[in-house]
TrEMBL record, chain A:
Family stated for the protein in its record: Belongs to the binding-protein-dependent transport system permease family.
Sorted UniProt keywords: Cell membrane, Membrane, Transmembrane, Transmembrane helix, Transport
Location relative to the cell: Cell membrane
Gene3D superfamilies: MetI-like
Species whose genome carries this gene: Paractinoplanes globisporus
Protein name (database record): Carbohydrate ABC transporter permease
CDD domains tied to this protein: TM_PBP2
Automatic annotation (TrEMBL), chain B:
One Pfam family per UniProt: BPD_transp_1
Entry's localization field: Cell membrane
Protein name per Swiss-Prot or TrEMBL: Carbohydrate ABC transporter permease
InterPro entries for the chain: ABC_transporter_permease, MetI-like, MetI-like_sf
Family, similarity comment: Belongs to the binding-protein-dependent transport system permease family.
Membrane topology category: Multi-pass membrane protein
Keyword field: Cell membrane, Membrane, Transmembrane, Transmembrane helix, Transport
UniProt entry tagged with the keyword Zinc: no
Transmembrane segments: 29-51, 91-114, 126-147, 175-197, 281-302
Source organism of this protein record: Paractinoplanes globisporus
Gene3D superfamilies named among the record's database cross-references: MetI-like
Domain ABC transmembrane type-1: 88-302
Automatic annotation (TrEMBL), chain C:
Entry protein name: ABC transporter substrate-binding protein
Signal peptide positions on this chain: 1-25
Superkingdom of the source species: Bacteria
PANTHER family named in the record: ARABINOSE-BINDING PROTEIN-RELATED, DIACETYLCHITOBIOSE BINDING PROTEIN DASA
Keyword Cytoplasm: no
Species in which this protein is naturally found: Paractinoplanes globisporus
Amino acid sequence: MISKVERTVNYVVLTILAVVVLFPVGTFVVAALSPDRSGKPVGVGDFAWGNFSTAWHDAGFARAMTVSMIIAVCVVAGQVLLALLGGYAFGVLGVVGDKVLFPIVLLGMMISLEAIIVPLYYQFRTFGLTNTLPGIILVHLGMGVPFGIFWMRAAFRALPRSAFESAELDGAGALRMLRSMAAPMARPAIYTLILLSFMWTWNDYFLSLVFLHGENQTATVALGVFQGRYVTQINLMAAGGLIVAAPVLVLYVAFQRKFISGMLAGAIKE
Amino acid sequence: MVVTARPATPAETRDADVRRRPLRRRTRWIGLGFAALPLAVYGLVVLVPLAQSVQYSFYKWDGVSASTFVGLDNYRSFVTDPVLRSTLGHVLVLIGFFALLPIVLGLLSAALLTRAKQPGMAVYRWIFFLPQVMTSVVIALVFKRIYAPDGPLNTALRAVGLDSLAKTWLGDFTWALPALGLIGTWVTFGFCMVLFISGTSAIAPELYEAARIDGAGPVREFFAVTLPGLRGQLAVALTLTITAALRTFDLVWITTHGGPGTSTLTPAVALYKAAFQNPQVGLAAAIGVVMAALCLVIAVVITRVSERD
Amino acid sequence: MRFHKAGVAAAVALSLAACSPGSGSTDKTDAPSTVSTDVAKAGNVTLKLTDFWGAAEGEWIKSVITGFQTKYPNVKIARTTEDWGQLNSTLNLQLQDDSGPDIATANNGWQSLGTLAKGNLVLNLDAYAKAYGWDKKVPTTITRQNTFTTDFKTMGSGSWFSTPMARTSLIGLYYNADKLKKLGINPPTSLDELEADAAKAKAAGEVPFEYGSLDGSTTVLLGLQALLADKKKLNDYIYGDSTVKATDVAMTDAITLTKKWADEGFFPPKFNGIDYQTAVANFVGGKGVFRWEYTGSLGLNAQQQGHFGYIQLPQKSSSGTVGVGAAPGAMVISAKSKHPDVAAAFLDYLMSPEAGQMAADKGLVPAMSPDVKVPASSLSLTGESAGAATLDKNDGYVPYFDWSSPTMLDTLGQNLQLVYAGKMTPDKFTAAVDKDRDTFLAGQG
């Protein structure tokens, strides 16, 4: 279908890009295997594989990863539910006052957390929700609503109109239409939302830093033990960083097919 | 949603049955019922604190003891302080690297990846998205090493005889900001690519066939068919990346702390310093409010432009 | 409809605005008037301690806790550790929580301790200072670091709001002993000797001072300033005496000398692209002959401690020894603590010679412990504790310069980079320092 020359050019350009992308990742992996505190690269024979178990123990990842996992799973579940409701309302049913409400929702995608963290903390303290998992889950959910609505609204709007009309003629209510038709049809977009939501929650640093202490620290914050006031152990930090990145990478590999097909289905077609 | 009268292109005709009109008036109240729960959570976590932030921005407050009402003083110092004002200029540069460059690269890679079914494309797709998956703390540390005076980048430049180009990237008053920006490009372009791949696959194949029958090469095909078909995705990508540029915090914080001098200070870093390092919560809130307002304007403009069909 | 909603939103916002931020926390907590030093009487008590100590420092606090619990079996101390940045930025929030810590490590200066004291989040410790005799035990220059006047306009006098400990963190000069031997140089005993040695090292092809300015490291500048400035004036400047100006505390001399060293090539090539961590790693890895550094920051292991020495140089005017130094943390008691008496006893224990000996045993610099025994095999620790002992004896501490205003650390770091790049003159640098502090003082009212 396309010429051999073009095909070769494609590969060359893509490979150059891939090398540029992978090079920093490679540097990082090498740093994680360095026996030196500063993460200086060493030969293959000197690789310090023990860094991973040292990092695992020093940062208390067994506990921290459990906390992170609980938060991420709850947030993903809640996020999908809220996004389905909100996306369906804004995308299919229409919402009273949506000309005002929708931009307000969009605004949330752009507010930086730093801008609201102080009042947010005081507010949650009055609810007694600081340093609790339900508290931080609620914050994640609230911060995630804008993207969730935005994303599922676009996904629902991309579904053929005729399906909704015939279902309505059959007398299906709004909720039944969402449950039995719209949600299943938008499945690829939902998979994508799950992946993104998991990734963002898992990688969160700042929110956990402010809201969670002691036993409740998450994996990303636990990485901080390698960064003292003066001394940073870059090799252990890198090893720990790889451990923290592992669940997201696994999920990404597992979901890739569905994820891409979610994108391919035109989920975010405006 | 402004409807202009002009002949429909094939893409729009195809779009027509996808176009959404509200089912009926009454569903809009049911819709509000559906949206109530997400909106309530959102309001509680984002809007109420945001309103309080607006309120804080009129006070001089250390975050702990009693506050003094100072009117617009915090906003005034944001506008008059040359250092704080310069952060907006830095953001403009960063937008080039966080938004424009990734979009160009994303378009390029998406075009290459979707043009034909070649083996190995899934691998490339996976690689390009990889930076998105990594924690920002980790990314910042990696690049700090790469940009070091005797780091891999300078070593590579010297190896190919470009000694004169080797420099202390993050410590250089001219180069620190672009060097930071390139980190953003590296992170963001995979995300743009995935958006564009999705958009490209939603473009009707007939359009490509028609273009090929007209004898269009890959370049002309891209400009005549692919690019116009990606308008929606471009809007999404622009909105997300521009606001990401405006919000840049972790990368700067971990690599340069805003230096050398104040040459890489961003509003978010200034905000963080004010809120958590120097107890000036009011000033921090004012910076946050200005940032939020800018973001809203950008989003509204982009949405307006892109939804005009 | 829409407008109606907007109206409601505006009304909500206005009603929120009716109560100004922070107005809920102005209730005054006075210094406890009746205090007890009898810990055994307190019954079974559990205290929560939150600190930012890891590695050797973490080991130290663990052994101090064990020591205290052995002494008072009725007390249990539950320790949480957080990284320095996290604790630093969230301590004021944590102390407002009912479930927050009883005892915590704060940072001295306005930015952390001052804000906590002013917000009544930490106890005024005067009654305990009297009961335990801290005023006699602690050198005056260290005491001042923990005090604020009760109107919170002045730091460095007034009431105790935190305590130091039997440890210290100094800025001083480290040297690579092997390199000195190879170059045939004896450890310098004065600033002039140091400059001569640096020139000799440079001529021999070595980097005299390992250093990097990428993140605005100020150790060279502040280390030199302590050798050049008048002790009392420097203390007064930092504690906010507006009649003292930066030129009076040798700021211009210090920055000029620092810049001169940079221009003479005493720092590594391209030092503006080297970050702090890399510079530390380079020095420990054998690059450079000298390094200005905070004690405890090199992270030397037992074997390395035999190869690196430490010197607390005397003042250039040879009027005794003055050094930048403070306890590595300001211990505070939460205003919400239910057992302040027990907490104060623990703070007192942290200042005891026992705690100092435990520090030396872990390779940390002991202070206020004249009879401490340091392993002779550790060249660096021997030098460090000798330095601390000299400063204790001379009462020669000056606080970190960045305590003078919350933004001072940024101001120093940013402008230092400008000076190195030739974009700012030393005079302008000094003026910028004054402007930063005086703006802050003016805002204090």
